[in-house]
Amino acid sequence: MDCKSWGSRDIVFLCIIVLSLIHVSLGAKVRHFKWEVEYMYGAPDCQEHVVMGINGQFPGPTIRAKAGDTIVVDLTNKLHTEGVVIHWHGIRQLGTPWADGTASISQCAINPGETFEYRFKVDRPGTYFYHGHYGMQRSAGLYGSLIVDMADGEKEPFHYDAEFNLLLSDWWHKSVHEQEVGLSSNPFRWIGEPQSLLINGRGQYNCSLAAKFSNSSISQCKFEGNEKCAPQVLKVRPNKTYRLRIASTTALASLNLAIEGHKMVVVEADGNHVQPFAVNDLDIYSGESYSVLLKTDQNPYKNYWVSIGVRGRDPKTNQALTLLSYSATPASKLSTTQPPVTPRWDDYNHSKAFTKGIYALMGSPQPPKTYDRRIILLNTQNRLNGFVKWAINNVSLVLPSTPYLGSIKFGLNNAFDRKTPPDNYDSSYDIMKPAPNQNTTQGSGVYTITLNTTVDVILQNANALAKDVSEIHPWHLHGHDFWVLGYGEGKFKNGDEKTFNLKNPPLRNTAVIFPFGWTALRFVADNPGVWAFHCHIEPHLHMGMGVIFAQGAHRVGQIPKEALACGLTGNKQN
């Protein structure tokens, strides 16, 4: 069946959904999970602290499904004094926008003692994850992996013999509640750099597996009685091809991953196939995921370091290390050579070379050649009555008490700011210098986008409050993938669109803007609902770095009453 022959865009979209449902009905399963979220004691980096866990596990349980399956998670909040939601990062939630798991946007926070049913389809294979999206609960450890395999009868466009899953995160000894208070204080108190980097929830604080190669007085790690923080060794057999699924749920850190003596071939980014290309190391920003292929073609009688280091910020956190261990060698045998050295934190040319080298696999969907609306979003650091904030086009986002999805669907005009945020910023603004007027405003307004139109978003970075400081920001879009059309230096200007890649741009759900630069994205607003688009750095979102896109919310079907049983929507549902 050729959907394009059906005519208008709306009909084509309906056709695609119908075909998807037909495909899903063949061999798809419903996978049920019962989860309880609670605080518990743990020692992610060998130091005991309170962590947020699911069913007594940290990180939370891995969900494994096949494309077309339906996931049902009955989530019970056992936190006693705070709400909770879970966002299914990278899952587009076609037809189920209330299951996106964004407090005040798609649903009410789940109150202590309550249970909420998340029910949604995973329509495409890929490497995904889930995490808390209320306050800064992701920083507290509320996250886990979500892996979607190919549907029965389908094959990946690459071969591998086995796979490993690496979920990367950062970890603080200061509680998230104390972090939140500091971010909202005057004078401002920054959260600082993480104490540790974690691989699958395991890291080592104040010790190193490779202490003998360090110039500092750091000690050699010992794990007697602390096995739960010992690294998970990747045990491999010689002359095989392994798929490494790598996802970053960090709250702050941009990371670089390298494997001693081995190249990696990148084949997937954010659930989309890319043209395979070989790298010695890869940069991964918060919210991103990759699959790489690794050939075990080195000396099988030694082990090799897997190293994770900080990029984009002056690192005060030790590398995270584990081992790639060939079957002929005991896992306890450490490599006798120095671990791979993470590229210098501010070597942005290295970062850009990797990021700009990602192209969609031949046969991937191509972007529309033109756009219907262009929104240019200026990222700035500002002050509001003395408090430090992040703002977009001089508006720092604050979320309302009534979820946008319900208030827009039911026409509750007083639930949020009715003034639409600006589509652009003052053209005289100098992005290379601190703003002469550093004050900003707060708002909860929404960008209302006409359904099935094509939108270009230009993310424009700028100088922060301090002179000559501009930070990396990874931006994540809910409910959609977008095409990354290009990157540029300085201020985006008329004519820069001539450099856009319209032939094979990668489809992503998260894209980075580099310091003092811009990133151009294009997406089709074909998924009715209300969707967050925000910096995936946890404290930056907490400080207002995000916007809200609404499209066709009136077309959303019956919303579960539990999703909207708060604020002004509590008595407005049909």
Summed up:
With 574 residues, the protein is mainly β. It is 8% helix and 36% strand. Strand 24 (395-397), helix 4 and strand 25 form a beta-alpha-beta unit.
- Low-confidence residue ranges: none
How many H/I helices?
A: 5
* CATH classification class of the largest domain: Mainly Beta
Q: Can you count the beta strands? A: 34
Notes on the structure:
The protein is mainly β. It has three domains: 120 residues, Cupredoxins -  blue copper proteins (Immunoglobulin-like); 196 residues, Immunoglobulin-like (Sandwich), CATH 2.60.40; 200 residues, Sandwich (Immunoglobulin-like). Helices cover 8% and strands 36% of the residues. It has five helices and 34 strands. A six-stranded mixed β-sheet has the order 10-9-14-19-16-17, with no helix packed on it. Strands 23-22-27-32-29-30 form a six-stranded mixed β-sheet, with no helix packed on it. The chain has a five-stranded mixed β-sheet with strand order 13-21-20-15-18. Helix 4 links the parallel strand 24 and strand 25. The radius of gyration is 23 Å and the shape is globular. The mean pLDDT is 93.
Keywords:
single chain; 574 residues; mainly beta; Immunoglobulin-like; 3 domains; six-stranded mixed beta sheet; 5 helices; 36% strand; globular
